[in-house]
Design brief:
This protein is elongated. It has 3 helices and 14 strands. The chain has helices at residues 30-49, 67-70, 75-91; strands at residues 17-20, 60-61, 95-98, 105-110, 114-123, 132-141, 146-148, 160-162, 167-174, 177-185, 188-194, 260-274, 277-286, 290-294. By secondary structure, the protein is α+β, with helices and mostly antiparallel strands. Among the domains are: 17-113 and 275-294, no CATH class; 116-198, SH3 type barrels (Roll). A hairpin with a 2-residue loop joins strand 10 and strand 11. The protein has a 6-stranded mixed barrel. Strands 7-8 form a two-stranded antiparallel ribbon. Helix content is 14%, strand content 32%.
Length: 296
């Protein structure tokens, strides 16, 4: 079986980047719109150029500093803002510093973590639908013959067995059973695998259960057939066959709808403030690279 690696599209909410100032009806300038558009295009190109190791969506970009906040900052200030913002998102603690350029205080306040659907996979037929957790994508050659199950139950027979050396792709784990990973072929989940198979130290080659030995039934000695007594009268003729009725053919059954498994990840809003200017930036966490700004 050939395992295909394809970029998985994300179904993220639209970007949440808002601006406010002392003048509430201040429009967003063309300069700001251009900055936003350029960031989106650059991220999308980056994802296509290196889909295997890049962002899981073109709309996740490494960072963004709006022009209104940016006008208070020099290059060193911008680097410090990004560093402290990552710290705020990881620790859930507000951060602040004094900008070199403007001598104004810059504060970063992280919002609460929300769990959101970041991607969807189609499911192969007869594979149980579980919510999945986004994790660092694993792509390895199977260490041993590896069973792929339709459910997270090792007592069931696997739906297939990947031979040692075949590619094994696991982009997510099962939300309520983190010892199991979802196995993907392209944009389809084809089953589940115990995570112990991803570690060469714990992987054990799958062996099918030993079938029970069949018992040979005892042979009985054949007896000579006994002759039936002569019939008293000839058998009555069989009744004529009933006329067959032609039944209308049933309409073809509809194909079942393709099920989709949701891949869930962590998201937060970071609130940046300088004087009376505020930026609300939405981030989602993409393992292993970290927090990325959400863009569509």
């Amino acid at each position: 079986m050939k395992i295909v690696n394809k970029a998985i599209p994300l179904l993220l909410a639209g970007s949440l980047i808002t601006f406010s100032s002392g003048c509430s009806d201040l429009p967003i300038s063309k300069e700001i719109q251009g900055t936003l558009g350029g960031a989106v295009v650059g991220a999308a190109v980056g994802a296509k150029a290196d889909g295997k190791h890049g962002a899981i969506i073109g709309g996740l970009i490494g960072g963004f500093i709006g022009n209104r906040i940016g006008s208070y900052l020099d290059e060193e200030d911008k680097k410090k803002l990004q560093q402290l913002e990552m710290k705020a998102l990881e620790t859930d603690e507000s951060q602040s510093f004094i900008a070199n350029k403007s001598k104004e205080e810059v504060t970063i306040t992280p919002g609460p973590t929300t769990r959101e659907t970041l991607a969807t996979y189609e499911l192969s037929p007869n594979v149980t639908n579980y919510s999945l957790d986004l994790v660092s994508r694993v792509e390895i050659a199977a260490h041993v013959d590896t069973p792929i199950y339709s459910d997270t139950n090792r007592s069931l027979n696997p739906r297939m067995v990947l031979k040692k050396g075949q590619q094994l792709v696991v982009p997510a784990t099962v939300v309520d059973n983190s010892d199991w990973g979802a196995v993907a072929e392209g944009d389809t989940v084809i089953g589940y695998v115990p995570l112990s198979y991803l570690d060469k130290h714990t992987a054990r080659a799958y062996a099918p259960p030993v079938a029970r030995a069949k018992t040979t039934p005892r042979k009985e000695t054949a007896k000579a057939p006994t002759q039936a007594p002569p019939s008293a009268s000839p058998a009555a003729p069989a009744p004529p066959p009933a006329e067959s009725t032609v039944q209308a053919s049933a309409p073809p059954a509809e194909k079942p709808a393709v099920q989709k498994a949701a891949v869930i990840g962590n998201c937060k809003i970071s609130v940046r403030r300088v004087k009376n200017t505020t930026e609300n930036i939405k981030y989602c966490k993409e393992p292993p690279s970290g927090w990325k700004v959400v863009k569509t």
